[in-house]
Design goal:
single chain, mainly alpha, two-stranded antiparallel sheet, globular, transmembrane, membrane, transmembrane helix, PpoB2-like
């Protein structure tokens, strides 16, 4: 009995080892026959999916977005501080009184001993800084989309693409500022020379504000407003960036014609007017119902123009 039990025990051990070995071999064959789990074929995609920096792009999209936003915020703060400083400095220099009870800033004329070139350069610098501070909050998302389009088109440095587009955008606004300075200087000289013309300016200002309000509520204004966020285009080089920035600047200048007119009538150095118009511009571009914001702003402009016109008629 003892011998038979030993034999049975040995047979059981060998049988057990055969079964275990068979299971291991079948498991190994099944593992080799199964398909591998699909992974990202491109290492940059796999890394960007985890938010890690990749070699081809120089960093994750999230990190690049944060850096881009930080630069825009710093630029906004710097331009705002510079604009406020210049406006406060110009306010201390006083204004030129005109017949009819109104006045013009000394920014429209050379200072004592100064030249017209120096006056134009000073106004243009102030205008460029003011435009940057007022337009950058609504321009930042557009520049980021331009950067994304450039990256998708294969641009080697999409950040530089956005910088060039922004520079071209401000260049268009600077050209408009130069034309505005020329018109303001001519108005100043004409008002000083002909008092009758100066007395008619308040009346004309009321009419101009009403016209600006009607423009603000027009379909053409809404069409130009839609073009202010349009970033589609071909090319990813420097020429394409400048071309898109110029086109974007022209569309925004046309869209802001009514609000720019209101700023000029109310006082180009008025910080409160700048802040209110900057909020209006940002709201009509970034709000979901931007068209309604534009129309509401136009209605307020109509009311302001009517009040200004009635006051001018009363003082005649």
């Amino acid at each position: 009995m003892l011998r038979l039990s030993a034999i049975d025990h040995d047979d059981f051990g060998s049988t057990r080892s055969k079964i275990v070995n068979g299971i291991d071999s079948e498991s190994s064959e099944r593992d080799h026959s199964e398909k591998p789990v699909p992974t990202f074929s491109h290492p940059a995609l796999a890394q960007s999916d985890r938010g890690e920096p990749d070699i081809s792009s120089g960093g994750s999209v999230i990190d690049q977005g944060r850096s881009f936003l930080a630069i825009c915020i710093l630029l906004f703060i710097a331009s705002t501080i510079a604009t406020v400083t210049i406006c406060l400095t110009m306010a201390q220099m006083g204004e030129v009184p005109m017949a009819g009870g109104w006045s013009m800033s000394t920014a429209w004329t050379p200072l004592c001993g100064g030249s017209w070139f120096a006056a134009a350069a000073a106004f243009l610098g102030m205008w460029a800084l003011m435009t940057t501070a007022m337009m950058l909050p609504s321009l930042t998302p557009v520049l980021w989309r331009l950067r994304e389009h450039a990256a998708a088109a294969g641009a080697a440095r999409p950040g530089l693409f956005a910088v060039l587009a922004g520079f071209a955008y401000i260049l268009v606004w600077s050209a408009l500022g130069l034309a505005i300075f020329a018109g303001g200087a001519l108005l100043l000289e004409a008002a000083l020379r002909w008092p009758l013309l100066a007395r008619a300016v308040p009346l004309a200002a009321g009419v101009v504000v009403i016209a600006a309000g009607l423009f603000q509520m027009s379909q053409w204004k809404l069409a130009m407003l839609a073009h202010c966020s349009h970033v589609a285009g071909q090319g990813a080089g420097a020429a394409a960036a400048i071309r898109r920035g110029l086109r974007l600047g022209l569309s925004c200048c046309a869209s802001c014609a009514g609000l720019t007119t209101l700023l000029l009538v109310g006082g180009v150095m008025d910080l409160r007017a700048m802040a209110i118009l900057a909020l209006a511009i940002t709201a009509e571009r970034l709000a979901p119902a931007g068209g309604r914001v534009a129309r509401a702003t136009g209605g307020l402009m109509l009311g302001a123009g009517a009040v200004r016109l009635a006051r001018a008629l009363w003082l005649l």
